[in-house]
Amino acid sequence: MTRFCDINLDDYCLSAVSGFLPERPPVERLPNPYYDLWEDICCDLPLLITSERLKDKLESLPLLSTALLNTKEEWRRAYVVLSFLSQGYIWNGNPPRRKLPVAIAVPLRKVSEYLAIQPCGTFAAYCLWNIGYSPTIGNPRLNPDDFVSLCKFTDSKEEEWFYVVSVAIEAQGGRLIPKMLDAIDAVEENDTSRVRSFLEAFVACVDGMIITLDRLDENLSREFFYHRLRPYLRGSKNMTKSGLPDGVFYPRCQCGGEEGEWLAHSGGSNAQSSFIQLMDIIMGIEQDGDFIKDMRNYMPGPHREFLELMKGASNLRPYVLSLENDLNVRRLYDEAILRLTALRDCHLRVVARYILIPAGKDLPTKGGHMPLQEPGRGTGGTDMMKFLRTTRDTTKSACCEHYKGSNPVQAASIICKTCGPRPTEQTAHL
Ligand code: HEM
Ligand SMILES: N[C@@H](CC(=O)c1ccccc1NC=O)C(=O)O
Q1: For position 220, what pLDDT does the model report?
Q2: Quick check: is 229 in a domain?
Q3: Residues 68, 71, 76, 81: is their CA dihedral positive or negative?
Q4: What is the number of structural domains in the chain?
């Protein structure tokens, strides 16, 4: 019988220490000077964007080969750089630019094919592979301050904070992966004490994630997020009203003709975080609809394969349901489910604060961007509040017992600035 804890995580580009984040620090600059042309533009991206000179720079860029990329880390770095340049090129114009320069489109598609990921701005491009590890801080790196972001659209600490908060959440989750694998084995072996210890670790992990999510406002204002950064995170799918009715054209040759493809992609989103989807899979929560599944196509190929493997292996929920008389395990499982519900509840409030409130104010858009004409849509393209409420409610309904009217945040007794104070009667009703 396969023991899941014996899986070689490396086969899935995963680490027992950092999860879906790379264990070794990402390449901060492609070492071969041949790629200086890309790197120099990326380094100057904030200035080229504010001075509106990015277009000319990229349209006169020669087409470089990907043949001189060596390690996996170099391919990832190339992907990050080209994703930022493509997003900058498209959205640093009003209306947005509908055709990518060949010198971006061709290598971006090559590196994306190599990494089995979509050729656009993704969670991997902005977060997973766009981080620097401070050499003074060893593993585990779990706080936003333990990371820096490498590429940025603006010269602002606020943009960096937006990325590193997600990265820290991902890092905290990563450490749970070996325990998740052990829990699958523990269920096979009917070892309830190991199952309980996994569920306790899960609860503690999600508590930490909520506290970190709640730190977004330490260094990120809603005006900056909504008006300065978010326009560059947009996708090209269902964006007719924002000026991209057919998506974006990726030319295949320098002839300037019609050879190439129109491609439409969802924008970057944390829905593309493999760890968050993994939590649902391990807990046996089935999110409805195609969006979450489609987001797997925006993850790096090996991570997507790992999720598929875990989907086939997920056994915790039927096991807990079968333990009809083991109230200890059942309540602990429910506590874990309610923590995940609380995470999604806090996230809903983040979305209200960073999108709904600024969208409601009639502020002039800085930088002359075309306003998003559908303020209710996320960069991923969802009808966001409806979608996010559904994922939260589906999570909560996975509880074994019924908690009538209980507020998941209170049930989870989280100290959360957005969601209110810690209740006095912690989890007494569970
Ligand atoms: C300013 C910060 C953030 C905003 C405005 C925001 C907004 C959104 C929106 C609008 C969606 C809907 C999908 C789409 O159409 O794009 C979404 C999805 C999602 N976001 Fe965020 N998000 C933020 C930060 C985060 C962070 C730090 C996390 C990390 C836990 C996160 C986790 C998720 C998840 C997991 C989903 C998928 C839905 C689900 O699984 O429930 N978001 N986000
Ligand atoms: N879906 C979000 C954006 C978002 O969540 C996101 C976009 C790019 C990289 C990371 C993201 N998520 C959280 O850090 C929005 O609609 O603004």
Answers
A1: 98
A2: yes
A3: negative
A4: 1
The Cα–Cα gap between 276 and 369 comes to: 32
The secondary structure of the chain in percent helix, strand, coil, rounded to multiples of 5, reads: 55, 5, 40
- Of ligand 2's listed atoms, the one at least distance from the Cα of 121 is 8
**pLDDT(421) > 60:** no
Structure tokens at 387: 């979608």
Return the structure tokens found at 406. 């209980």
Distance between Cα 270 and ligand 2 center (Å): 5
Segment 88-97, tens digit of pLDDT = 999 998 999 9
- Residue 323's CATH number: 1.20.58.480
Query: Is residue 126 a part of any domain in this protein?
Result: yes
Distance from residue 3's CA to the centre of ligand 1 (Å) = 33
The label of the residue with tokens 């998506």 reads: 247
- Give me 50's structure tokens: 């504010």
6 domain-assigned:
no
Residue 243 domain boundaries:
14-427
Q: Is residue 179 part of a domain?
A: yes
Threshold 0.90, pTM exceeds? yes
How far, in Å, are 5, 15, 271, 305, 346 from residue 19 at the CA level?
14, 5, 17, 14, 23
Give the ligand whose atoms come closest to the C-alpha of residue 83.
Answer: 2
Rounded distance from Cα 270 to ligand 1 centre (Å): 5
The complex scores an ipTM of 0.97
> What is the Cα–Cα distance from 401 to 327, expressed in whole angstroms?
10
| Residue 270 Cβ contacting ligand 2 at under 6 Å | yes
Atom of ligand 2 nearest to the CA of 126: 9
Closest by alpha carbon to 350, among 272, 278, 419? 419
* Whole-number Å distance between alpha carbons of 32 and 416: 46
Task: Give the tens place of pLDDT for each residue, 173-213.
Answer: 999 999 999 999 999 999 999 999 999 999 999 999 999 99
